[in-house]
Amino acid sequence: MDDVSSRSIEGENPRYLPQAKIYAGSAAVSSGIAPFWEIEDATALKIALEVRRDGAVAYDATTTTASFHRPPQGLVDHLWHSQPFPDGAVLSTGTGTGIVPGLDFTLRGGDVVEITVDGVGKLSNPVRGDQAELDWLVEAIDHPLTRRAHRTGASRGR
Length: 158
Description:
Layout: E1 2-3, H1 7-12, H2 17-20, E2 27-28, E3 46-53, E4 56-64, H3 72-82, E5 112-117, E6 121-126, H4 135-139, H5 144-152
């Protein structure tokens, strides 16, 4: 999952964290999700973040799942203990130590954010510069075919 929360909102006050994560386009989930039980050693996965701007690397950092406050297996156990998920679940772990840019860095329209997790895969997302560019997503929330058509460039609509 690529969490591109609003750093300007988060930076103002930690209590604003929920508001920083609710706008359209603030999180992307890859279609190539790897089930936890297929990961050989989830305690030592390397996670790399790269932000490209105008064709050059504007920010890059790495961390590992070993830096997490709670081990991945503990997070999975806690999630599944709370209730069953017959169709599975996406567990967002939060950010590991050392990968988050400083408050002086902000994403810009046109940037490309790439997250790579060794043994799992890579997720690459363009940053949109204007909320209007995501209006289709909000309007299509109940129309999966509209979302698919937009992603693939197909002419199919609602």
